[in-house]
Each structure stands twice: as structure tokens, then as C-alpha cells.
């Protein structure tokens, strides 16, 4: 199918290419994330690229529904050529192995053989799905964890099942593999592996969770079942310095869970999430820094989260040092965190740390940015609210007085 046959809404208005990561801005228009970020941050534009309407905020919201529609459309394009309806050359061997999974105690060996077959290419992977392979392997996953998760051999079979399942794409909520894996029992089994599995198996589980998190999946039933242990296992992965992929996936899953449920934030705070993010923040790269600042911001929307941040000795200093040093997104998130903290928890210690660790000086610098934005308004609110308190300190920025119109 030619590019001209692509539905117009699937193309980014800036590049006219099919979008891979669509986001929606304040005007309701969706763009490819990297294109609109370039418009805002490289070219310093504060207007909608399509309508040229001035924007009060540069917030971008992931358009999961549009992304699913694009993926489903693309899947239909490749189905005739890459997913033939005729059996693959490995069909008979696969069917035989499915039968072995049901009756034989040597499930690990059978799962490894199936995995090697699925890895051969799109033909065998499609045949595996059509022939009932997902159902057969999911049954192993559930039975070896929920029914008997204390036996080493059984749990090893469960891990091998995950190693196979993580190779299958979860395109949308209408996808067969997604529907089978997102049921309560398989989700519970993967959560168990996330808590007690090997490093490799935990990576498989969190990879699948990340794919599921990209949809509008409701995590409530799993969180109610697993409770605080779910967050502890996710935070352990965030702390994993040996596998950056697992750490990044865990952060993405946490973002989706915490963004969709305020109740889940309290459990995350109880599990020590604020402490983990604050301690990892100083040495994090740009991508992880932005994700952790977003998570801290979400947690600081709760009184318990703000309290956890200010009680941590590195809380305010860590956030303050990231302002203007990472990216526009990180600075924006940092301002929101400091605004929430200084507005709802303006203790003498908080205000003093903001001054000593450079936050106030950086906030003053942000006032000089051109245009209006929600971030700039928060900066002004912070300075007007606490400017008089900071003026009493020796390290009070001299140009703060001028910005606020204070008398000499």
C-alpha cells in the first residue's frame, strides 16, 4: 500500500510520515513526539505547528488509542505477505510439542525447542499463534506458578514459558496474545516471577508488562492481589545497575500505573519509591532522569509523597541540581515538584535547602525566558510566596529583588 493510501490522521502534520510515538498537545492535534519536541525545544516555538495557535502549556500527552490504531493498520498491511495462512515447515513438530507440554514432565526441554522454532522467523511465529501455542504456553505459566510455585523444576518451566512468550508482539488489546496474557491468572503468575524469578526471567516479565502498560490496561486487580510486594519488585528492578533495560522497563511500567491510579501512589510511597528515585537521580542519564522526575512529581501530588521527599536528606538538593542541567522536560518537572513542595509543605528547612542548593537562583533565571507558560507561572508563584523569607539569607540572589519589584 502506498503512503498516499495511509489514513491522514496517522501521519504527523510536521513530517507527513506515519507516526510511531504519537502525542497530543493542548490544541488537540497529535504529532510524532520527536518532531513536536524539536519544534518546541530546538526552535523555541510556543505555538501549535498545524494551527499556529499560541500555547499556554507545552504539555504532551501520549495518544495510546491512535498508536494502537496505527499498529493495527500496519499489521493488516504485512499480514498477507509475512503471515501466510498455510502451516510452516515446523508445524507438525510444534503441534507434537504442544501435546508434550500437556502430558510430559519434561516441559522445560519442550519449551526450549518451541522457543527455538518461534525464533526462526515470522512464518513459524504466526503458525505458533494460529495453532494454539500461546494458549498451551500460558497454561504452563499459570500452572507452574499458581498451582505449584515452590518446586524448582516447576518454576523453571514457568521461566522458560516467559522466555518464549516475551518474543511475541503485543500489538493491541484486540490482539490474541494480549488477551490471553492480560487475564488475571497469567498476570499474577508474571508478578510472582517478578518477585522471585531469576534475573533473566524477571527481564522477560517486565518486558511483557511494559508492552501491556502501553495500552489502557487496568492494573487495579493485580495491585489489589499483590499489594505492596508488586511495587517492591518493580523498585528492585529500577535499582538494577546490571540490566539497564529491565530498569528502564520498570520505570515505564511504574509511570503508567501511578499516572492512572492515585491509590497506587500511596502503596508505592509505602514501598519506598521516593527514596529509591531520589538516591538514583544524581547519577541517572537524561532518559532515566526525566522518568524519575515524572514519578517523583506524581508521588508529590500526595501529601505522603511530599513528606517523604522533604524528609530525605537528598530530596530537595537532588531535584534542585537537575533544574536547567538535563532538558526542558526535566526542568519543567523539577519546577512542578518544587512548586508542590514549597506550596503545601513550606517548612523553614525546605525553603533553606532550595536557596542553599541553587534552586532559587535557577528559578530566577527561568523568569527571563520568553513567552508565557504554566512552568513560568509556577516559578513566579514560588518566588512571590517565599521571596521575603529568602531575602533574610546571606546567599539571597540579588536579582530576585528586581524580578519581584521589591524595594531596596
From TrEMBL:
Pathway(s) annotated for this protein in UniProt: Protein modification; protein ubiquitination
The record's InterPro entries line, in alphabetical order, gives: ARM-like, ARM-type_fold, ARM_PUB, PUB22/23/24-like, RING-Ubox_PUB, Ubox_domain, Znf_RING/FYVE/PHD
Catalytic activity as recorded in UniProt: S-ubiquitinyl-[E2 ubiquitin-conjugating enzyme]-L-cysteine + [acceptor protein]-L-lysine = [E2 ubiquitin-conjugating enzyme]-L-cysteine + N(6)-ubiquitinyl-[acceptor protein]-L-lysine
Coiled-coil region(s): none
* Listed PROSITE patterns: U_BOX
Which GO molecular function terms does the record list?
Answer: ubiquitin protein ligase activity
Can you name the source organism? Durio zibethinus
Check the record and name the PANTHER family matching this protein.
Answer: U-BOX DOMAIN-CONTAINING PROTEIN, WDSAM1 PROTEIN
Q: Note whether Transferase occurs among the keywords.
A: yes
Q: Which domain of life is it from?
A: Eukaryota
Check the record and name the Pfam families matching this protein.
ARM_PUB (PF25598), U-box (PF04564)
Swiss-Prot/TrEMBL keywords: Transferase, Ubl conjugation pathway
Q: What is its EC number?
A: 2.3.2.27
Q: Where is the U-box domain?
A: 5-80
Q: Give GO terms for biological process.
A: protein ubiquitination
- The name on file for this protein is U-box domain-containing protein
The task this protein performs is described as: Functions as an E3 ubiquitin ligase.
Amino acid at each position: 500500500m502506498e503512503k498516499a493510501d495511509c489514513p491522514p490522521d496517522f501521519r504527523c502534520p510536521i513530517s507527513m510520515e506515519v507516526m510511531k510515538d504519537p502525542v497530543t498537545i493542548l490544541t488537540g492535534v497529535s504529532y510524532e513526539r520527536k518532531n513536536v519536541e524539536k519544534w518546541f525545544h530546538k526552535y523555541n516555538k510556543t505555538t501549535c505547528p498545524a494551527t499556529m495557535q499560541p500555547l499556554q502549556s507545552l504539555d504532551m500527552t501520549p495518544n495510546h488509542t491512535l498508536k494502537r490504531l496505527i499498529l493495527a493498520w500496519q499489521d493488516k498491511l504485512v499480514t498477507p505477505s509475512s503471515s501466510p495462512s498455510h502451516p510452516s515447515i515446523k508445524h507438525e513438530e510444534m503441534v507434537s510439542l504442544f501435546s508434550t507440554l500437556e502430558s510430559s514432565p519434561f516441559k522445560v526441554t519442550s519449551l526450549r525447542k518451541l522457543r527455538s522454532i518461534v525464533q526462526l522467523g515470522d512464518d513459524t511465529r504466526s503458525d505458533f499463534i494460529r495453532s494454539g501455542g500461546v494458549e498451551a504456553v500460558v497454561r504452563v505459566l499459570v500452572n507452574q506458578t499458581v498451582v505449584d510455585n515452590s518446586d524448582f523444576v516447576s518454576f523453571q518451566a514457568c521461566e522458560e514459558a516467559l522466555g518464549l512468550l516475551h518474543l511475541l508482539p503485543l500489538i493491541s488489546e484486540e490482539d490474541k496474545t494480549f488477551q490471553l496474557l492480560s487475564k488475571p491468572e497469567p498476570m499474577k503468575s508474571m508478578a510472582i516471577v517478578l518477585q522471585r524469578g531469576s534475573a533473566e526471567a524477571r527481564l522477560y516479565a517486565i518486558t511483557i508488562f511494559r508492552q501491556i502498560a502501553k495500552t489502557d490496561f487496568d492494573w487495579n486487580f493485580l495491585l489489589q492481589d499483590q499489594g505492596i510486594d508488586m511495587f517492591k519488585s518493580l523498585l528492585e528492578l529500577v535499582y538494577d545497575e546490571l540490566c539497564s533495560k529491565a530498569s528502564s522497563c520498570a520505570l515505564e511500567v511504574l509511570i503508567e500505573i501511578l499516572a492512572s491510579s492515585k491509590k497506587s501512589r500511596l502503596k508505592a510511597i509505602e514501598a519506598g519509591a521516593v527514596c529509591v528515585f531520589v538516591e538514583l537521580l544524581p547519577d541517572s542519564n537524561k532518559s532515566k532522569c526525566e522518568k524519575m522526575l515524572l514519578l517523583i512529581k506524581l508521588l508529590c501530588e500526595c501529601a505522603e509523597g511530599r513528606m517523604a521527599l522533604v524528609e530525605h536528606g537528598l530530596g530537595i538538593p537532588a531535584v534542585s541540581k537537575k533544574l536547567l542541567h538535563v532538558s526542558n522536560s526535566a526542568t519543567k518537572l523539577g519546577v512542578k515538584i518544587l512548586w508542590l513542595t514549597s506550596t503545601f509543605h513550606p517548612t523553614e528547612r525546605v525553603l533553606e535547602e532550595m536557596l542553599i542548593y541553587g534552586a532559587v537562583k535557577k528559578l530566577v533565571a527561568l523568569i527571563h525566558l520568553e513567552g508565557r507558560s504554566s512552568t513560568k507561572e509556577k516559578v513566579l508563584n514560588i518566588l512571590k510566596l517565599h521571596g521575603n523569607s529568602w531575602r533574610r539569607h546571606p546567599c539571597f540572589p540579588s536579582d530576585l529583588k528586581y524580578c519581584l519589584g521589591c524595594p531596596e
